[in-house]
Amino acid sequence: MKIAVIGCGNMGMAYTHSFVKQGVANKDSLLLIEKMAEKKNELERLDIAKVIGGISSEIANYHYIILAVKPQDFEVTAMEIRKFVNSDHVFISIMAGVTIQKIKKLLNTDNVVRAMPNTPAQINMGVTAYAHTEKISPTQLKDVEKILSSTGKVVYLPNENLLDAVTAISGSGPAYYFYFVKHMIEAGIKLGMTEEMASTLVKQTMLGSYHLIMNSPNTLDELIASVKSKGGTTEAALNHFEDSLVGKSIIDALEKAEQRAKELSK
Ligand SMILES: NC(=O)c1ccc[n+]([C@@H]2O[C@H](COP(=O)([O-])OP(=O)(O)OC[C@H]3O[C@@H](n4cnc5c(N)ncnc54)[C@H](OP(=O)(O)O)[C@@H]3O)[C@@H](O)[C@H]2O)c1
């Protein structure tokens, strides 16, 4: 599979490393396009792909083109790509808020996949939801799934509309989790622990609880009930969450994120 990655920042490199690690592409089949000179030199030193500093006719030799530049750089980037687009190209965009319609129009192509990954992709533990245009063939779709699943799990969306919700839930999701972990550690320090001690307790609690969610036959409410006893410590904390409308606030916050994703797509 011949793959080109345009924009080798955090996400572009998460894909690149996954391709190499999983044998999806190698030095002969992977092209990295990075305009930042310092980063380009760094990529060359890695010696894992062909590296070029700007979009050129070279992309005609690559079938799947991953668009991993910032959304605000897309219009300029698209002008550069447009003259080299052929009907065999399949464009896989991971840019937040850039619609399939816009990509089709600016690149003059019908072959577009729009995907929303998240940063655990860097350690092959990401989740990516994607939608695509009708023109993508079943064979191409198989390749697309292989490309996207190299960084973790993949969720197919029957249409593009849900991508704003996906952005709010799993795209931004890692930041919500980091925020919760950060505040739990801060609480531990406030209660007299060293940072190291609080950090170990919180991180292992998160890890163990995640595995319970995945492995226990119980529902989330049952899992909560299994920690809580009447008049106990957990109940004191959970009652405070309820009184402070924390659950509602989480739902409201994610709705705000979805609205923002919708605004950015306009
Ligand atoms: N980070 C996340 O959690 C996340 C999650 C889901 C989706 N995404 C999406 O992933 C995309 C990339 O995000 P990121 O965090 O990886 O951004 P990033 O680190 O800024 O990477 C983008 C890279 O592309 C380069 N670039 C810009 N225009 C180019 C061009 N015409 N040709 C070649 N290279 C070009 C940039 O160089 P300069 O710095 O010199 O401009 C930069 O190195 C974004 O569209 C974002 O919406 C990110």
Outline the structure in words.
By secondary structure, the chain is α/β, with parallel strands linked by helices. The chain is 52% helix and 14% strand. The protein has helices at 10-22, 37-46, 74-82, 100-107, 138-149, 163-171, 173-190, 195-215, 220-227, 233-243, 246-265; strands at 3-6, 30-33, 50-52, 64-67, 90-93, 112-116, 126-132, 152-156. Strands 3-2-1-4-5-6-7-8 form an 8-stranded mixed sheet, sandwiched between helices. Strand 7, helix 5 (138-149) and strand 8 (152-156) form a beta-alpha-beta unit. The longest helix has 21 residues, at 195-215. The radius of gyration is 22 Å and the shape is elongated. The two termini are 33 Å apart. The protein binds NADP nicotinamide-adenine-dinucleotide phosphate (NAP).
